[in-house]
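User: I'll paste a sequence; please echo it back and then give the predicted structure.

Assistant: Echoing your sequence first, then the prediction.
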Amino acid sequence: MKTDNFEALIEGIRDEAIDPATVDQAASRVRSRLFTAVKSAGSLRGCEDFQELIPSYLNRTLSPAKSLLLVDHTHECVACRAALETSRSGNIRILPRPQPIASQVSPVTRWAIAAMLAVCVGVGTWAMVRSMMVAPGARATVQTVNGILYQVADNSSTPVFSGRELGERQLVRTAKQSTAMLRLTDGSMVELNERSQVSISRASRGTTIHLDRGNVIVHAAKQRTGALYVKTADVEVSVKGTIFAVTSGTKGSRVSVVEGSVKVDQANRSQMLKPGEQATSDASVERVPVQDEIAWSRDATKYLAILGELSGLQKDIERLPGPGQRTSSRLLDLAPPNTILYAAIPNIGATLGQANQLFQDRIQSSPILKEWWDQQGGHGAQLQEMVQKIQNMSGYLGDEIVLAYNAESDSKNGSPIILAEAKRPGLKELLQAEIADVNAKSARQAMELVDNPAQLRSVVAESRTAKVYIGDGIVAITPQGSLLQELSVRMKQPQEAPSFTNGGFHDRIQQAYSAGVSWLFCADLGRMQEFGGRFNRREARAINDASGMRGVRYLILERKDVNGQTKNQATLAFSGQRQGFASWLAAPGPMSTLDFVSPDASLAASFVIKNPGAMLSELIQQAEAKNPELQQKLEEIQNRTGVNVIHDLADPLGGELTVAIDGPLLPVPSWKLAVEVYSPDRLEWAFEKLVDAFNKQSTEGVKLQLTKSQEGSRTFYTLKPTGVSVPVNAEIDYVFVDGYLLAAANRGLLNTAIQNRSTGYTLARSAKFRSLLPQDANSNFSAIVYHNVGGMVGPLADGLKSMSAVSAEQKRAIEQLQANTAPGLIYGYGEPDKITISANGSLFGFSLDTLALPKVLENVMRHKP
């Protein structure tokens, strides 16, 4: 009770409004006492003056004011502190007093310095008072613990349970496969991933979460005063109220923003991050999708339900009529002559409006989506405003909008330009209003309307201000005024302006238009390599020669609707035959290894590759360029084991490879691998030699145990590690079947795969797989990736639905996710001078639920309620 009263008293002092007259009176008293102390202390201009005071100080005859100044000075001055210590030992050494120099400081300057000193003392005193006013007591409360949470001390670690209060800088750490949720005194929530260690401190500037290691997700409450901070070894993050994630590891830190904005300070550099943005403290820490950074959260059930609602919404949106195909474009010929990137998107204003209406209706009818949407704060209103602006603008434009990036041939600079056809009068007035609004919100002139590009001065023409030009039925936006000048000439006098129409890149884009396009992205990769400059270095050339990427020419991405289906296609074209790594994908051929995969598989990838021995030789040659000792190490392995890694491990393999997840995920994922083998006995001999050599060389107590068992005419092999810390289910089972090596996580999967192949119960013959096959002239593929994550989510979702902790709305959303999760197929063809990858459906066969579901499934498996 006394503690509560004291905290209430402190809060009252904090919130008390201070009368300005009272502040002035306090400042007057500070000045009076300060000048009295300075006057009594006399003139102390330098170290020699202070050192003359040391004998009197040690004899305790020095006045209190001078003693205070001397002690303060010795805290900051190394020389005077050493002189004081020497004097205490009896060896007094006083610096010779220099000749006085007449002061040239004017009375006005003296008073200015005195006033500044008074202000500094006053501010420092107030800061000290504020720091003393930080109330003692709890800094956070443990809300939930999933697993084990320890309070860490030097000599002990104590388990912490829900409801426990954590004091100032009390260290807590989550154990392996454990998470916890902390609630700070300001209402902020901190979610700790496994093996994460934090402590909380509070000062006048706000509350600080000290993240020593691991991952946290912070839901920062709105801060009345100060800010909320997260501090790692190399960065400090400050916020007023938002959602963000911070990772601290051996290589550095990563900050990811989910909602709002955060400030990240590192050394002498600061940056602001917005939703979806990310920052790392070291180049060795790569950036990852923000959703991956928060995927470990314990709210797996809620996220699964949200995905179910979004999957249903996506199905509704996909039923909307898409933009029609375009077989030609006036804008293509108007692109700058040195264009290296060309993107054409349809005018989707009408479709966007219908999709937005579907979204709003869905939010109102779904409590789960509405709760999620309401948590987005002001972002929903911003999105609505943006959609409305796009709809208003789209009504004045033609069928497509083009973005072209121009690379100047005489420099490393380049500029983008946006082009569209103006179809209705009134566009200029609409743009004038939008430009005025943009400039009013910007610190500088961000955009300007240009009536006559020819009158642009060179300095203005190359400024950072985006210039908007409307003329001859075209609207163009670019920061490079010279591009507008060239465009104006190209439209009015085509023969007098450089043209894009004579290049091979233009012809390749025109070829795509001729076949019909909806969404189109094209890149002249050959020109981009030259433009970047860095590919001229010897090392980069060597890498490109080995990988085959030096001969790459164009990248073409297309998306269009064909017979009511959305088709995506990516083409990587080369200037000649594919070389190096790029040639590993062989021409289309049979995929017999796919027969070991059942129709129940949730994931399967199959490839037709060129000779594995040649592939491994190329890899070794590439590695030797960076590690000349590699060949010597390979020779040592061969001398010790008798195994040649190319001739004994790679050459016996054929040109087919399939990997799959074909069965339950728990307790061990049901993986399997099938490889074509030309010489099974030679490959098995190499395996046994390598296992024997490993066991002879192992000094860590871990051995490999290879056992055989006969079943009919077949020999089954089991390879498992043995030792103290080896997982129980860590094993690989394999068998040779009709010229194929079949490996899996257990013996049962091998027997099932063999039986399904003999009875014809295979993925390739199933109706759902065959319904995904494209209609084209090819009878085979070079590569395929089949996915049916509904097979993964089914058993887990059924388990979740049976739990009482799942609400009726969540159960309905999970059922919707199961119903809307359809299989998909990505397929590729390797041709002599290009590689083509195609898929039907959204995002190359991956819909929203498909892309997000693996992480959600991981959540569900690790944090089942």
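The first strand starts at residue 140 and ends at 146. Residues 92-133, 533-540, 843-865 have pLDDT under 50 and may be disordered.
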